[in-house]
Amino acid sequence: MEEQGPQVVSRVGALLRTLGECEPDGASTTVIARLSGLARPTVHRLLTSLVGEGLAERSSETGRWFLGPELYLLGTMAAERYDVTDLARQTVALLAKETGESAFFSARRGDQTVCLLREDGSFPLRSHVLYEGIRLPLGVASAGLVILAHRSDREIDGFFERVDLTTAWGVSHSESAVRGRIAETRTTGFAVNPGLLVEGSWGIGAAVFDRHGSPEWALSLTGVESRFRPDRLPGLGARLLDQAHALSRLLA
Question: Concatenated DSSP letters for 156-167?
Fold first, then answer.
């Protein structure tokens, strides 16, 4: 049975996002099939077609797939409308300098966040859970949690109808557990991830809003647990909120 147009578009989108997550090392057909959740023959057929359009590329030596050169050209043209990293870069650098922690700027993409910027602070022990380009579901990590917490109750209900975090992320990301952290985030204004992704690696995040008041981005800090003790968390949260509010005004 021939694939329908919307289904093909959805699958191509999943493949391109998967390729992006595998950059710069690329990945085999088998790995891409596993990560994207698509059948291996489907992955090979679609990627071969994308090569013809310049949207994917395959190494003749290793057989690994990569994002194609046409995506770079399209990206540079889209950057004029969508690239906000230049405006956020100074804020991220300032947070890293003032706190000594690793600072990040992430954007919402559907039910996920993607990390756009990272700046390491002066403290020698760092968390390497987050890096530029990584995608995580909303509700996972402090950036995704704070964005989800600032969306409407109806949107949050819809998210949990679509997404099951427990299967991939464990019982600490059950719906009831995440909803509990959402309630805490709404009280303080900032989200805290107490080592739920990697033991001993903590994070704290604040939402950044667009001109319509929608939480589309987040600033966050990550570091080792000893740097996020209870007496320091309120100060880190307040600093994040100040910078998030300032960046929201700038982006608006």
Answer: HHHHHHH--HHH
What does each C-alpha distance from 57 to 61, 78, 135, 144 come to in angstroms?
12, 21, 22, 31
User: When comparing pLDDT for 73 and 118, which is higher?
Assistant: 118
Using an 8 Å Cβ cutoff, are 243 and 219 in contact?
A: yes
177-189 pLDDT, tens digit per residue, is 999 999 999 999 9
Backbone dihedral region of 198: left (phi > 0), alpha (psi from -120 to 50 degrees) or beta? Answer: beta
SS3 116: strand
Average pLDDT for 19-34: 89
- Which residue is listed with tokens 């994917």? 56
Averaged confidence pLDDT in the chain: 90
With vertex at residue 137, the alpha carbon angle to CA 131 and CA 140, rounded to the nearest 5 degrees, is: 75
Q: Which residues fall within 8 angstroms of residue 211, CB to CB, at 6 or more apart? A: 251, 252
Task: Tell me the CA distances in angstroms from 189 to 96, 149, 181, 249, one per residue in order.
Answer: 20, 9, 11, 17
The residues pairing with 209 across neighbouring beta strands, listed in sequence order, are 215
What local confidence, expressed as pLDDT, does residue 1 receive? Answer: 41
Contacts of 16 (CB under 8 A, 6+ apart): 50, 55, 56, 67, 71
Average pLDDT over residues 204-208: 97
Residue 139, Ramachandran bin (φ over 0: left; ψ between -120 and 50: alpha; else beta): left
